[in-house]
Each structure stands twice: as C-alpha cells, then as structure tokens.
Amino acid sequence: MSFTAPSNEQIAEALGDLSKLPNTMKMAVTNRIEESFEPVPQPDGGDWLAQHNEKGQTMESFRKMSSSKAIPHGTHKTIYIQPVGSFDHPRAPPLDVIVEFAKIFFSGCVVELLPTVDFTKDMRKREFDGRTQYLTGGLHDYLVRTRSQRDTRRELLCVAVTMADIYPQEDWNFVYGEARTKEGVGVYSFVRLGPLFYRATSEEILQTPLTEEHRVIMLQRCIDTLLHEIGHLFGLEHCIYYACLMNGTNNEKEMDRQPSHLCPVCLCKLHSTLQFDVEHLYETFANLCDKYGLETECSWYQKRLAYIH
Ligand SMILES: [Zn+2]
Ligand SMILES: [Zn+2]
Hints:
alpha/beta, Collagenase (Catalytic Domain), 5-stranded mixed sheet, 3-stranded mixed sheet, 40% helix, binds zinc ion, metal-binding, metallopeptidase activity
C-alpha cells in the first residue's frame, strides 16, 4: 500500500474554516506550523500506513459524525478508568499519574480512577505464547454490564486498563487496545509497552530493576496509548496530516516516534467538542511533563505556548 503525504492545500482543506475560532486557537493551528509539526514519515513495510489505507478525517467529516463520538452533555462528563486484574508488577505504570495527564488533555471532563477489580469467570481467555490473554469483547461486556454500579448520570465513557495481555478475536495474536465506540467503552493493555517485553522472559522482566530511562519510555508510551485511545472514543480517527498523537502505530518504533500532542487538524476536532482554552491546556500539560521528566514533550509544549501568546 503506498502512502502519499497530503499537500499543504489538502491540509488546509482538512482544517476548513478557521474564522470562528478564538484567537489563541487560530494561532495554535496557523502560527509557525512547519517549525513545530513534522510531516508523517514515509512508511516502511511493517509500519501502520504500509498496511492500512487511511484516508484522513477532515474537520468537516468529524463534524458530520452523528454517533460513535463522545460529547460531554449536562451532567455526563466523567471518563471512568477501570483497572482490571493486578497492577502489582514492578513495571506497571503509575495510574494516578496517567490520570493526571488525561485530566488536563480532556479539559472540561472529569477523569476518575475506579478501584481495581478482578477478572471474572465469564471473561473469555486463552493461553498464548506462555501467557494468559483475555478477549477484549469480554471486558467490553463487563464495562457495559456494570454501568449501573457506576454513576450513570455522570458517565461519559468508561475504559478498562490492564497489565494482562488481550486479543480481539481468535485469529489475532494480540492487540494493544480496542474500543467499542457506540457504547462508549474501551480496553487497553499496558503489558507490551515495557521496553523489555519483546527482549526478555516474564521472569527476567520481574527481576530486572527499572532504570530511569525505561521509566520514562514506559510512562510516555502509556500516556500516549491512553490519550490516543480515548481520542478515538471522542471520534478522532487516525491522522495522516502530520506526525500526531492520532497516527496509527503498528510497532515500538512508530510508537516512540509518535508525539504526545495533536496536530492542528486533530486539535481543532477536540477543541470543537471540548472548547478548551488552548493556552491553559498547553501550559498545564508542559508543567506536568516537567514534573514527571518527559523533557522532549515539555519543551515542545513550552515552545508552542510561546507561539500562541
Ligand atoms: Zn488508533
Ligand atoms: Zn493529527
């Protein structure tokens, strides 16, 4: 599958009419764009765009989506994060920290971490490559079935996170995550995001002390995965306009290349739903990156902030 990067005209068309945007948003999506947003790299054989024919979702097509897109309304603005199974693992990400990032990114929503629950007996599982894997559909069903136990007047979305491996259907080896957009639920596994996952056995991983370098890589990947996947539940489809948080990823190389920020087109989509103050969002996100040692993203957000003042 060959991928042709969109031209500047096609990107302008995808952005659409900017005249009604607040000034800071206009600056965020027009000022010094080439300095801050990289083009999508030409895909290699194993990359997402070499295997998937993505057309790109314009602002207009995003606006026209009627279902399958979360829109906070009335009291419904809470994103519940439901941990499933044990997080007692030396390489489990700090969920409270990831929630802090989601709170800022999905500005105007409430993000609430629920108490951890166990896998239930009726969740389908299998043994694959020496580890237990759970079927994503079973986890989706669980989140739908237990909705009445959460605050249904406040719920906008509910996503399960787990350190267990997951698979979407019998003929797939695994999946990082899967959403059921119409029902506002999703499930994401962090287990494959550790830099040692493909390089050591489960026992070796448990015995290897976590270095600062690996802590940062893990945290960055977990944050990106959760923001990207919740982005899908807000109706954002895969992006082809720039290197962007919403690019599809197939492997670790693509995952680490993917930035933790939205490109101008995707930023406009999320803004049209959440109406956030972009200056405040960038400032608070930069501070959080600084607090947890995510230096590259911290300096990107600080640089952009200077360009939208
Ligand atoms: Zn995706
Ligand atoms: Zn994008």
